[in-house]
Amino acid sequence: MFNYHKRLFYPIHVEREDPAFAKVLTEHYSGIDSELSSALQYFNQRSNILNRHIRELLGIISAEEFGHMELISVAINKLGGPPLTLVNTQGALWGITQINQSLDVIKMLQMDIQTETRVIRLYQQQLKLTDDLNMKKMIRFLITRGEVHKYLFKKAQKLLRENGSPEEFNELIYDYKMSLQVLK
User: Which range is the signal sequence, renumbered to this chain (predicted)?
Assistant: First the structure.
């Protein structure tokens, strides 16, 4: 299912080193609302879902979140940040308790919507902490991708509640793939 591409999902450029902002970004690498937490949460959830479309959606979004984690790591390195470990900005180790787990699909998707909402909010706060236009562009890109994920989770949740048809569920994957077209 997973493929590694040498090319980054989004090009990372920095105007100058900024170790203080790099440290701020470590929260997205391994904090509570990090790309790592999102990727593992979605990947774990997909293992418990019978609906093949939602399972596929969670799989491809999980893979994308790992790609976002790589973007953050490259940005931290280019900004002259600290060595990357699974520690947040307060020095706490990342742990499995940081991912939400449920076996109810509707609740899972609600947790995913809340996760994306928190991540978007954190990125929006961090926009104000840098003057680097390249970092602002990267953060806006990640906010936009989070909004896409949130939209798709809401749509999946609605389809489950309304007993959507296979064609409607298939649109989830189509919508995801179309959201990538603007990136090319």
Answer: none
109: Cβ–Cβ under 8 A, 6 or more apart, which residues? 54, 153, 154, 156, 157, 160
CA distances from 124 to 49, 70, 77, 102, 157 (A): 31, 19, 21, 28, 25
Both tokens assigned to 50: 């019978």
Query: What pTM value is reported for the model?
Result: 0.90
Residue-level pLDDT, tens digit, the chain, 184 residues = 556 566 777 889 999 999 999 999 998 888 888 898 899 999 989 988 899 999 999 999 999 999 999 999 999 999 999 888 887 777 776 666 666 667 788 999 999 999 999 999 999 999 999 999 999 999 999 999 999 999 999 999 999 999 999 999 999 999 999 998 865 5
